[in-house]
Specification:
This is Beta-propeller fold lactonase family protein. This protein has about 375 residues and is mainly β. It contains 1 helix and 28 strands.
Length: about 375
Amino acid sequence: MKTTGPLILIMLLTAQISTAQSKLIPMFVGTYTSEGGSKGIYSYLFDMETGDSELQSEVETPSPSFLARTDNFLIAVNELGGGNQSVSSFNLQDEILTFENKVSTKGAAPCHVLLGDKGQYAVVSNYSGGSLTLYSIDKNGHISEMDDFREFKGSSINKSRQNASHIHSAFLGPDKSVYVSDLGADQIYVFDVLKEGGKYKFQEKETIDVPKGSGPRHIAFHPKGKTMYSLQELTGDIIVFKKEKSKWVQSQVINMNDAEFKGEHGAADLKISTDGKYLYSTNRVDANTISTFDIKKDGTLSLKQVLSVEGKGPRNLNITPNGKFILVTNQLSDEIVVFSRDAKSGELKDSGKRIEVSKPVCVIF
């Protein structure tokens, strides 16, 4: 009985330390690299209670413009051309990145990577190449040689941006299919990814059209799985699709800016809160804003708030796992802006916190 007091004290101290540690989470930032600028991927510890961050390390790799990770490894696309385009893998031990390997993407300007089947395959979107590549990955994150490759030959009405297919992203849907946005052709391609003989392959499933000149870029799915949101880079619209039987049917087109906005759009990213109540999206070029939408019971959107991103070129956004902050990567003003988020109303406000880094374009937790 005499040891009860000291034992309780030790347990309380251990619990306090554990709670403090749980507030600090690893965060990784991808950048466009340049001489005298950023060197590659930057890792931080982010405090989910205060919004503060502390730089832990940097790993040199050319223009890692999009990142994806599992608990064991991180994958980055190297957005280059001229035969230097690649996808790179890094081991994650104690949140420290160690280079594993890299392989060619066979298409210029890879700008997005998706990890599927619990990290056993990767899908890379080649923007300038207008193509999609598929790789097997082992449990250590080693990328195999290419399993499958698809090249697309589309175009649309915006002759300066849509003279050819531009594959911008691939997202995993609630049906486990891969949804691929072709900005150049105004189409979303849906593929199943199948495994045969130890290799993965694409199987065509469906093609979804969006309005001409829209330029689909990224996709988000509602947690309930019956609503899909497609972000249109060229018009700043979000197109809402509802699943009816086995088909996606368009139910709404809504713009992310206030009615008085008259400038050029450059819609970049969108994310949905884990409770499925709010959607957030960023818009670049003349807007440089982040928009908050209410998600109604039927899945349609209502514009709630439009805020300045306090910088230029908000290419990517992410919501912290506890939902308390949203981070926006302002590529052209060389910093990440941290917004506080009200979980009840969904509304944002500038926290005043900044993370200075050259040309940040992707942030993941």
